[in-house]
């Protein structure tokens, strides 16, 4: 089995690797590091959680140990502030035994402080495109000596509309640079960008996108107007450490976070309308346990790297199967098990099939025995009517109903079975194994304030 000694890193880099406890390189590191050390342009297809950040951080640190100091020689461009901080932290920890200096540059914080740091001299800059362009326009950053350019999570920079900014930045860099591009997916626009920015690149790919085997999946069919009450019921029945909930829009993230707070949960939202101090407080509170639930959008959640997330809940199904894999990759890390729940409506059936196709197996469907699926929507609001007093589940082993051997769902007596079957006809497939025991036995509810 190969270890990091294989790469013959500078001794100070080796000391940094040992200090963080890295022993065996990941597949993406084994493939990418030798190429990057040779100076080859690399196009890497890899998800978050595969070790891709260290795959470019380590060879960059090794390269910068030789040559000029105090000038920007490595530039990493990322889509979000959180990812910028995460990548910067990797440079700092893995390079802790070197004297190399690094800085993150993004909006929402004082540009004056960034200017002062840049003037003091740094070798590595991790930046978001918008603020980097601000510095370039004000001529407060000098990029003429950049030797290595990294475009990290390029597909999400495309999703966020950053490609025109990326092209402006690239035009100001030396043509002799080495360029590394990493992306979870490869849409046509990213391929076009790669053709423009990279020279004779070697593609490094980990194979078919697949989630960790330590994650258990479950679907909860529901009407749109019943999503919030069903979510509250699921949380009531589920024993968790920390929960990351995904929504499609920042407005919904905020409103759902507020609703969970009113329900008594230690929750907060994490979305684009927050100021940088608010974002740091939300993420820090979730990391240290002050908040048990974080509600986020896909874009805002870029760069969230918290190993102890026990549950990922898709309040809104993601836009692509690959995005599903990326979302649920936040749980089941570091040999831990995790659960991924998704609330699905009739409109989501095509995406469900796409997700099951990429997983290579059917996801089991669940309904809750003590939940009233017949609650009507309030007129002109799209919300549900006020529920009746909560029913106590006396047989905890049967708190949810499970598909029978014929693949049909055994619904509550007060619910129209024919209506439910018609609405969710796409759920009729053969029965799979039940979820983990902690779900079947109706474990302790989340702790309230």
Automatic annotation (TrEMBL):
A GO cellular component annotation in the UniProt record: cytosol
Residues annotated as domain DEAD-box RNA helicase Q: 2-30
SUPFAM superfamilies for this protein: P-loop containing nucleoside triphosphate hydrolases (SSF52540)
Annotated GO biological process: response to temperature stimulus; ribosome assembly
CDD domains per the UniProt record, alphabetical: DEADc, SF2_C_DEAD
Gene3D superfamilies, alphabetized: P-loop containing nucleotide triphosphate hydrolases
Family annotation (InterPro entries): DEAD/DEAH_box_helicase_dom, DEAD/DEAH_RhlB, DEAD_box_RNA_helicase, Helicase_ATP-bd, Helicase_C-like, P-loop_NTPase, RNA_helicase_DEAD_Q_motif
Key words, A-Z: ATP-binding, Cytoplasm, Helicase, Hydrolase, Nucleotide-binding
Domain Helicase C-terminal: residue ranges: 230-374
Reaction(s) the record says it catalyses: ATP + H2O = ADP + phosphate + H(+)
Pfam families, alphabetized: DEAD (PF00270), Helicase_C (PF00271)
Signal sequence annotation: none
UniProt GO molecular function: ATP binding; hydrolase activity; nucleic acid binding; RNA helicase activity
Enzyme class: hydrolase
SMART domains from the UniProt entry: DEXDc, HELICc
Sequence motif: Q motif, positions: 2-30
EC number of the protein: 3.6.4.13
Start and end residues of each Helicase ATP-binding domain: 33-204
Family: Belongs to the DEAD box helicase family.
Protein name stated in the entry: DEAD-box ATP-dependent RNA helicase RhpA
Protein source organism: Kuenenia stuttgartiensis
């Amino acid at each position: 089995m190969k270890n990091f000694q294989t790469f013959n890193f500078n001794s100070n880099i080796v000391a940094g690797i040992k200090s963080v406890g890295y022993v065996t390189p990941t597949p993406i590191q084994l493939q990418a590091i030798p190429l990057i050390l040779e100076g080859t342009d690399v196009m890497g297809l890899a998800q978050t959680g595969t070790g891709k950040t260290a795959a470019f951080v380590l060879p960059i640190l090794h390269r910068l140990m030789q040559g000029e100091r105090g000038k920007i020689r490595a530039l990493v461009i990322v889509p979000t502030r959180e990812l910028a901080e995460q990548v910067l932290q990797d440079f700092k920890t893995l390079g802790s035994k070197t004297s190399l200096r690094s800085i993150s540059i993004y909006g929402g914080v004082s540009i004056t402080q960034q200017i002062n740091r840049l003037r003091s001299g740094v070798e590595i800059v991790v930046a978001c495109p918008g603020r980097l362009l601000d510095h370039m326009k004000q001529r407060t950053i000098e990029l003429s000596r950049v030797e290595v350019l990294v475009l990290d999570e390029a597909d999400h920079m495309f999703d966020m509309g950053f490609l025109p900014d990326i092209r402006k930045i690239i035009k100001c860099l030396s043509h002799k640079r080495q360029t590394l591009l990493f992306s979870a997916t490869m849409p046509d626009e990213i391929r076009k960008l790669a053709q423009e920015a990279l020279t004779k690149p070697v593609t490094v790919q980990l194979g078919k996108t697949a989630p960790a085997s330590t994650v258990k999946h479950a679907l909860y069919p529901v009407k749109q107007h019943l999503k919030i009450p069903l979510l509250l019921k699921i949380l009531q029945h589920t024993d968790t450490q920390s929960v990351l909930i995904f929504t499609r829009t920042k407005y919904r993230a905020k409103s759902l976070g507020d609703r969970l707070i009113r329900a008594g949960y230690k929750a907060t939202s994490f979305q684009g309308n927050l100021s940088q101090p608010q974002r740091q407080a939300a993420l820090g509170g979730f990391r240290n346990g002050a908040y048990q639930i974080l509600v986020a959008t896909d874009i805002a959640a870029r760069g969230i790297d918290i190993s102890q997330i026990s549950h990922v809940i898709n309040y809104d199904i993601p836009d692509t199967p690959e995005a599903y894999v990326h979302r649920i990759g936040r749980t089941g890390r570091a040999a831990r098990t995790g659960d991924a729940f998704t609330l699905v409506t009739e409109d989501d059936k095509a995406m469900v099939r796409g997700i099951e196709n990429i997983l290579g197996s059917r996801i089991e469907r669940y309904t809750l025995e003590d939940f009233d699926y017949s609650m009507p929507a309030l007129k002109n609001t799209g919300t549900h009517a006020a529920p009746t007093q909560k029913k106590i589940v006396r047989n905890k082993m049967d708190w949810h109903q499970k598909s029978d051997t014929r693949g049909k769902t055994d619904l509550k007596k007060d619910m129209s079975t024919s209506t439910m079957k018609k609405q969710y006809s796409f759920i009729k497939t053969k029965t799979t194994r039940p979820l983990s025991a902690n779900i079947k036995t109706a474990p302790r509810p989340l702790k309230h304030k």
